[in-house]
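Hi U.,

Before I forget, here's the chain from the pilot set. I'm dumping it here mostly so it's searchable later in email.
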Amino acid sequence: MKITAAMVKELRTATGAGVLDAKKALESSDGDFEKASDILREKGAARAAKRSGREVTEGVIETYAHPGNRVGVMLELNCETDFVARNEQFLQLAHDLALHIAAMSPQYVRIEDVPAEELDREMSVLRAQALAEGKPEKIADKIVAGRIRKFYEEFCLLEQPYVRDDKVTIGQLITNAISTTGENIRIRRFVRYELGEAL
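Structure:
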């Protein structure tokens, strides 16, 4: 199948990939748009993994106040260079992340940030629930593992489905941004305020 410039442009718009990467992906998938997108996503994830060890000392502090000023978020999003930190896509990512945090109220950035004692307490409660439902011990452990996954998806930012597209997690959104910018990007920290919330 002949790969046209319009096909390359459409794939680039959808994925944020470079011209050559988009063309190669279309060629290797015989013009199949979905397969080409998957190839680029896999390639982007591999690149992101290579970049994950790089130091990130630049970035932005993004603030967001929800309409009505009842919820506010302050987020630190880091990257490798001030060039990317000033890039419109990076700034939009920071804004989108702050909006997501306002809407979804995560407690932690990543799974590793959950305190061990909180995780132990949650697991014991989930285990007791499974046993109270009459599940056998072996099955209860599998149920707890599945419910802990749900716990992470609810409380850990990188595991949450993105509020604007629930087919993509925040972690995948960051990976996509890494493959687009060519730099390591990391959510360092955030704080979410809600008017009248108990301290």
